[in-house]
Amino acid sequence: MDKARLSRNIRLCFRRISQPAMPGIFRRTSPLSAVWGFDRGTPVDRYYIEKFLKGYRQDITGRTLEVADTQYTNQFGTGVTRADVLDIDRSNKEATLIADLSAPDQIPSSVFDCFILTQTLHLIYDIKSAIENAYRLLRPGGVLLATVPSVSRIASDEIEDCWRFTVASCSRLFAESFGAENTTVQNFGNMATCVAFLRGMAYEELSKKELAKIDDAFPLVVCVRAVKAK
């Protein structure tokens, strides 16, 4: 091989190293799953939601309220005396309270010890009224455990998907009703888990190290524990 050709091949080699091709998954324009990864395992955001609820399972007690079903009440509740279900959909046979969370005339006052409100508030346009009513639902000393997306695909064409959240926005929104001293806000996720979630991967496809890292610049889920003052 002559020196000119050898030199050219060396330059091409270094060019390939300095500009590596992106893995095939990052070139896709459609996700691996159209249902957040449910068809591949457990969606990545559920990993953090369940970690949050497990950390506050002592709050899931007495008379509880959850949206759509009692999945997390059953999974994490301790000493639950009655488990109610909130839904706006009258066809939900599990629902014991049919109401729009943003409509004050449909919501009872001071009834529940704990309200589990996961991945719901972003679907409600009047977010401030929804949080105010979540406060009103609780008995004094009652606890709201809420989670909201910071990153997510749009829910569907049939559901009005209105908002995405940050620690800053949640801190201000929930403090308006519960008071800053009664509100704890934290985020979970990092760039890798955000990308994986948008791609439709399941959390079982990620390593423990990838899931464990919390990067405040790339939150996937924001979680709120808010207590109604006695």
Poorly predicted parts: 10-22
Write down the CATH class.
Alpha Beta
Taking the alpha carbons of the first and last residues, their distance comes to 85 Å
Annotated CATH architecture = 3-Layer(aba) Sandwich
By DSSP, the count of extended strands is 7
CATH superfamily membership: Vaccinia Virus protein VP39
Q: What is the number of independent domains? A: 1
Helical residues, percent: 25-40%
CATH topology: Rossmann fold
The biggest beta sheet reads:
7 strands, mixed
Write a structural description.
This protein has 230 residues and is α/β, with parallel strands linked by helices. It has a single domain (25-227), classed as Rossmann fold (3-Layer(aba) Sandwich). The protein has eight helices and seven strands, in the order αααβαβββαβαβααβ. The protein has helices at 3-18, 24-27, 44-55, 71-76, 127-137, 167-178, 191-199, 208-212, and strands spanning 62-67, 80-87, 97-98, 112-118, 138-149, 183-188, 221-227. Strands 3-2-1-4-5-7-6 form a seven-stranded mixed β-sheet, with helices on both faces. α5 (127-137) crosses α6. It is globular and about 55 Å long.
